[in-house]
């Protein structure tokens, strides 16, 4: 089932869209906290976004540009401001289509279906994990926090992925070593300790001190 995220501050429009698209078999969510759009987008990991231009705090152009830092998810702009300048700006910021308000729900649905077909006929889903603003994009092995990229080695990335997939739960050292051993390169207990130390330093420098907790004699966990 395709997931659609609606970023629209008019709740009447958002709820109407959600109800209509749900009847077409889509899993639909709409943003309610417009201060945390980036986090909600990453947590939802949608297959398509419907994005209004006029929003509280920052406009849709801003959020489209921020989303494009970690995701190639298709984005359809929705706006009553349909002059050429807004359409050009929407496309330049990374939008895939533009629908003028007021719109016919059936026409919008047809555009959604067409864009989903074009986007996912020959590629898999884009998988994103988000926790406390830390975003891990498994489609390109990138890591972002507050818009800044955190450069990790392959093993550091695998450790972080292993922990974020089970955020709030203890992951044993043995499980992490098994994760790192998938490519047949030998990883011993001391190597894990070295990689964990480097990973923590990089997260600390990025503004995430102590997000990885040590459970002595057991393993590690991402702090809830």
TrEMBL record:
Residue ranges of every copy of the OmpR/PhoB-type domain listed in the record: 126-224
Domain Response regulatory: 3-116
Residue range(s) of DNA binding per entry: 126-224
GO terms of molecular function: phosphorelay response regulator activity; transcription cis-regulatory region binding
Pfam family, one: Trans_reg_C
Cellular component aspect of the GO annotation: cytosol; protein-DNA complex
Keyword annotations of the record: DNA-binding, Phosphoprotein, Transcription, Transcription regulation
UniProt xrefs under InterPro entries: CheY-like_superfamily (IPR011006), OmpR/PhoB-type_DNA-bd (IPR001867), Sig_transdc_resp-reg_C-effctor (IPR016032), Sig_transdc_resp-reg_receiver (IPR001789), WalR-like (IPR039420), WH-like_DNA-bd_sf (IPR036388)
Signal peptide: none
GO biological process: regulation of DNA-templated transcription
Origin superkingdom: Bacteria
4-aspartylphosphate PTM sites in chain numbering: 52
Gene3D superfamilies documented for this protein: 3.40.50.2300, Winged helix-like DNA-binding domain superfamily/Winged helix DNA-binding domain
PANTHER family referenced in this protein's UniProt entry, alphabetically: REGULATOR OF RPOS, STAGE 0 SPORULATION PROTEIN A HOMOLOG
Protein task: May play the central regulatory role in sporulation. It may be an element of the effector pathway responsible for the activation of sporulation genes in response to nutritional stress. Spo0A may act in concert with spo0H (a sigma factor) to control the expression of some genes that are critical to the sporulation process.
Protein's UniProt name: Stage 0 sporulation protein A homolog
Organism: Sellimonas catena
């Amino acid at each position: 089932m395709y997931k659609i995220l609606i970023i629209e501050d008019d709740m009447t429009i958002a709820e109407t869209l959600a109800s209509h698209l749900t009847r077409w078999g889509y899993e639909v969510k709409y943003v309610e906290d417009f201060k945390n759009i980036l986090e909600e987008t990453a947590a939802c990991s949608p297959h398509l976004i419907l994005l209004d231009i006029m929003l509280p705090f920052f406009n849709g152009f801003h959020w489209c540009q921020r989303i494009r830092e970690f995701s190639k998810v298709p984005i359809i702009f929705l706006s009553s401001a349909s002059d050429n300048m807004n359409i050009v700006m929407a496309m330049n910021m990374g939008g895939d289509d533009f629908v003028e308000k007021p719109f016919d729900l059936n026409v919008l649905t047809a555009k959604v279906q067409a864009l989903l077909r074009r986007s996912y006929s020959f590629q898999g889903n884009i998988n994103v994990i988000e926790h406390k603003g830390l975003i891990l994009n498994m489609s390109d092995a990138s890591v972002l926090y507050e818009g800044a990229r955190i450069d990790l080695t392959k093993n550091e990335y695998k450790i972080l992925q292993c922990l974020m997939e089970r955020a709030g739960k203890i992951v044993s050292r043995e499980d992490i070593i098994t994760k790192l051993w998938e490519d047949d390169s030998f990883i011993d207990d001391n190597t894990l300790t070295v990689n964990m130390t480097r990973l923590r330093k990089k997260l600390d420098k990025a503004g995430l001190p102590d997000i990885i907790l040590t459970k002595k004699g057991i393993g590690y966990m991402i702090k809830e």
